[in-house]
Design goal:
The complex is a heterotrimer. Chain A is mostly helical. In chain A, about 75% of the residues lie in helices and about 0% in strands. In chain A, strand 1 and strand 2 (about 85) form a beta hairpin.
């Protein structure tokens, strides 16, 4: 067995295991940290797929940004009078389980039954140059629009959060 | 066994399918809005694995990675706005449990 | 100066007043002195540039005609393979440079005068802003090289005139006069627009040059000379409206409700002369028939307005009618083919008539202040019966007024003599060549009447005794800022500026610069050729001058006999010619007729329509309603028992079903999500048939 094969199975198991912890943990903070490991695992899978730049982005944006944001959200919304309460409850367990299992079965059936022949293997040595050229070339417009979208998202988020403080002050 | 020895396109797709269903489970079953949000992130990541796997194993090539990159960007924007909405919900209903927010009940 | 610099220079002249307008309208009130100095400085600069342009153009490039243009809207391909495009552009020829100099000069002097006259006005800044907008629009009319832009600027001066006549819109009469001026002008402009469109449909362009070329190449609108004549007369309709010619002359006297400097600038010197300029511009494509119509309209206007002017007592109204009459002269001059003479009369008239109005402004200003001091709010400051004896109190105004009066009466050594004499000689030549003996006859009669009513005004207002001696004591000469423009204009009323020979303009620079353009219409329809016409004018010039001096002298003598020496009683004279007198007092019933025909006609039509509406249409509707009611009573029974039963039954079923289905709607997001994912998986399975 080659090293990459071993690494693939290792990271796959770790990722799925972390995801399972995230889904079924009662404590939301544990869930958040499990999500972090899941995301790191996914980043490792990206590396195995020769997508080094995306892997780096994944780590920076998800682990460094979104996860921190989620933790902030947890802290801000879990206040019960004076103490913090991280316990969460599950609902709809039965229908949700059935549907999830159904979904994974359908997807796997499709993936395994499809004939992927004609596919070939591309081994990128350096994706950053290629991606950079594409971003500044064919993808310049989506790139700019994405920038504008992020700006709007930031403004929107700030606007909504400030309205919160204004409302709280009024109600106080 | 062939399946175990050589990780190909199908292996990655299988991992992504499992992650997707776990995300779906979270979205459907957890009460907490923030947990729902985490589930959505998981689903997005599962989709992203697909794109990048296709970019590695098919003629999609770098284009797949490009789409993956944009998914990450959109996810960041979505997370920021969704959390702001979650905070607004908390401020308005004093709870972030989705099943208690049932204003739409007929 | 190079030829190419003409275009940017002209643009600068055009846009400077616009810049002044924009600045004043937005920031005027925050400027020191409310911005009057800015407007005046800007227009003065325009004037200096225009003067430079005039001197350089006439001195160095007298035969050149410079055009600068670009495509504004490209509409696609036209006939004959050219592109159909609307151009914007500037045309600079001798006509243009003379006209812009006149416009900016009068505008500058009026700006200075207004600083004194409008002092303390409620809308001081806006007044100066509108003056700037007017100057811009007027220069636009003159500078443009195509009919469409001319039409746009034509409307712009119309709106400026509207705004400025209604400057004191709190006064009902002022706002009415503004409306009247605007509406009457629209009648003429509609004709002008149709005329422009006839040319555009046929030649696919608005540009003068291209239209002229097409016509000289023998292409006629719709292939007939009749249409060409019609196009010329229809475009002339615009001039009829704007220059207050018969039968649309009724708006100009009412326009005197505006501030007096406005009357001087817009309603005497420049805007009303735009019609004359328009005729001069399109002169090459006017057929002999069109020119004859134009000549007769001018003659009729000159006579009618002169007779009305004799009977008026309002200082400004007299001047207004005299303006109409003089405009009639210019149109008459152009119509008979005395092109340069008609246009020269525009220029000389601009100087002395602006002067007359500013002098009137000076008198009204002084009267107003004197009345104000005595707290007399009933006496009309503009009525000449309340004046008299102003000579001693307002010497500058008086002496300049005398000069202007001499000029308008056509006394030798003045500018008015030169131009009027040439027009009269032109009418004489026209009649000896083509018949139409009425034209010179009317011309000479109107000249005599002009001298008579102007001296009547002079004698009644300035000579004799003042109606109220104590009021006279309070009268003061107007401030310097008002009298200096008067003196400038008085200076410009002498012959020396137009021709060194006081008895013939033909040898002066003006006639050398403004040559009658070649007629481009087909040979059969051409007016008498310029050379033959010129020779005939030379032949009759002496006679014309003799008669013209004679009638002017007679007019002046008559005025002195009646009003100064009282040898003939004015009232008796009026009763001798009671029919004529009454007609003139009532302005030849134009207003009354228009009121009867158009205003009352519209009201009567509205009444008939209302009757029709009330009786016929309402009756029909009511009848229908009765029938419908009977029908509906029958329908009601059916409705209650059968339809309602059915509906209620369905509603019952729906209600039950709704209650059952309503339980599915929990209001919880995740429940809905479960439904969605479930449906999605089912569809997925069905579609893939796994």
């Amino acid at each position: 067995m080659e090293l990459t094969t071993i690494l693939f199975y290792l990271f796959s198991v770790a990722t799925i295991g972390a995801a399972l912890v995230m889904v079924f943990s009662k404590n939301i903070v544990h869930s958040a940290f499990a999500l972090m490991f899941t995301l790191i695992g996914v980043a490792a899978l990206y590396v195995l797929l020769y997508a080094d730049f995306i892997a780096a982005t994944q780590l920076l944006v998800y682990v460094g940004g979104i996860l921190i944001l989620i933790l902030f959200g947890v802290m801000l919304t879990s206040q019960k009078s004076d103490t913090l309460n991280f316990e969460t409850v599950m609902v709809n367990v039965l229908p949700a389980s059935i549907l999830s299992v159904g979904a994974v079965l359908v997807l796997l059936a499709v993936f395994f039954s499809t004939d992927w022949a004609g596919s070939w293997t591309t081994e990128h040595s350096d994706t950053v140059t290629g991606l950079g050229n594409m971003l500044m070339g064919d993808y310049i417009l989506p790139f700019i629009i994405a920038g504008v979208l992020l700006l709007i998202a930031i403004i929107g988020a700030i606007l909504m959060s400030t309205r919160i403080s204004a409302n709280t002050q009024e109600s106080n | 066994m062939d399946l175990i020895i050589e990780p190909g396109l199908t292996h990655f797709l299988a991992v992504s399918a499992i992650l997707f269903s776990l995300g779906l489970m979270t979205v459907l079953s957890r009460r907490n809005v923030i947990m729902v949000l985490m589930g959505i992130e998981l689903i997005l990541n599962a989709a992203n694995i697909n794109f990048i796997a296709f970019s590695r194993f098919t003629e999609l090539s770098l284009e797949g990675q490009m789409i993956g990159l944009f998914v990450v960007i959109i996810a960041a924007a979505e997370a920021a706005v969704a959390l702001a909405i979650a905070l607004n919900i908390y401020n308005r209903f004093k709870t972030i449990n989705v099943d208690q927010i049932s204003q739409l009940k007929g | 100066m190079e030829l190419q610099t003409f275009i940017p220079l002209a643009l600068l002249i055009l846009l400077l007043p616009l810049a002044g307008f924009v600045t004043l309208i937005f920031a005027g009130k925050k400027l020191p002195r409310k911005g009057d100095w800015l407007a005046t400085a800007v227009i003065s600069m325009s004037f200096l540039l225009s003067l430079t342009l005039l001197i350089v153009k006439l001195g160095w490039y007298p035969d050149e005609s410079i055009t600068g243009s670009f495509n504004w809207l490209v509409l696609g391909d036209a006939m004959f393979g050219s592109t159909l495009a609307i151009e914007l552009g500037i045309l600079i020829d001798n006509l243009t440079v003379v006209m812009i100099t006149v416009v900016t000069l009068v505008s500058t002097l009026v700006h200075f005068f207004s600083i004194g006259y409008m002092e303390g006005d409620v809308r001081y800044t806006r007044y100066f802003a509108y003056l700037g907008l007017f100057s811009f629009s007027m220069l636009g009319i003159v500078l443009t090289h195509n009919l469409l832009m001319m039409y746009i600027f034509w409307e712009l001066v119309g709106i400026c005139s509207y705004l400025l006549i209604g400057h004191w819109y709190e006064k009902k009469s002022a706002s009415n006069a503004a409306n009247k001026a605007f509406i009457v002008n629209r009648v003429g402009d509609a004709g002008m627009f149709i005329g422009i469109m006839i040319l555009f449909t046929n030649f696919s362009t608005f540009t003068f040059e291209t239209i002229f070329e097409s016509i000289s190449a023998g292409i006629l609108p719709f292939g007939s000379t009749g249409w060409l004549t019609a196009a010329g007369i229809l475009i002339f309709c615009g001039a009829v409206g704007k220059s207050a010619q018969f039968p649309l002359q009724i708006w100009l006297p009412d326009a005197m409700e505006g501030p007096t400097p406005i009357s001087a600038l817009i309603h005497a010197a420049t805007m009303v002369a735009a019609g004359v300029f328009l005729v001069a511009r399109i002169f090459p494509i006017l057929t002999a028939d069109a020119l004859m119509v134009i000549a007769y309209i001018g003659a009729i206007t000159a006579l009618i307005a002169a007779t009305v002017a004799i009977t008026q007592y309002d200082f400004k109204k007299v001047l207004a009618y005299s303006t109409i009459s003089q405009l009639g002269y210019m149109i008459l001059g152009l119509g008979v083919g005395a092109y340069a003479a008609g246009f020269m009369h525009l220029v000389t008239h601009a100087a002395f008539k602006a002067g007359l109005f500013l002098a009137a402004g000076s008198v009204i200003y002084a009267m107003h202040h004197a009345l104000h001091k005595r707290e007399d709010h009933h006496t009309d400051a503009q009525d000449i019966r309340n004046m008299g004896g102003l000579k001693s109190k307002m010497p500058v105004t008086y002496w300049t007024f005398v000069i202007f009066t001499l000029a308008i009466s056509g006394i030798p050594l003045t500018s008015g003599f030169l131009s009027k004499d040439e027009i009269l000689a032109g009418t004489l030549a026209y009649s000896s060549l083509n018949g139409h003996y009425l034209l010179p006859l009317i011309g000479f009669i109107a000249a005599g009447l002009t001298a008579f009513y102007m001296f009547r005004l002079l004698i009644l207002a300035f000579h004799g005794n003042h109606a109220n001696t104590s009021r006279l004591a309070d009268l003061r000469e107007s401030p310097k800022v008002m009298t200096i423009p008067l003196m400038v204009l008085a200076g410009l009323s002498f012959f020396i500026f137009y021709s060194f020979n006081p008895f013939g303009a033909a040898s002066g620079w003006f006639f050398a610069a403004i040559e009658r353009p070649m007629s481009l219409v087909p040979e059969l329809m051409q007016p008498t050729g310029a050379v033959l016409f010129h020779e005939t004018v030379q032949g009759v010039h002496g006679i014309a001058m003799f008669i013209s001096i004679l009638v002017a002298g007679a007019g002046i003598l008559g005025a002195f006999l009646v009003y100064s020496w009282k040898k003939i009683s004015a009232d008796q004279l009026a009763s001798y010619m009671s029919v004529l007198y009454r007609g003139a007092v009532d302005k030849w019933y134009f207003d009354a007729i228009y009121n009867r025909v158009f205003v009352d006609g519209t009201i009567r039509l509205a009444r008939i329509l209302r009757w029709f509406d009330e009786r016929v249409i309402d009756g029909l509707v009511n009848g229908t309603a009765v029938v419908a009611r009977k029908l509906s009573q029958g329908g009601r029974w059916f409705d209650t028992y059968i339809v309602d039963g059915l509906i209620n039954g369905i509603a019952e079923i729906t209600d039950r079903a709704g209650n059952m289905l309503g339980k599915l709607q929990t209001g919880k997001v995740q429940t809905y999500l479960v439904y969605i994912v479930f449906s999605f998986i089912v569809l997925f399975v069905l579609y893939l048939q796994i």
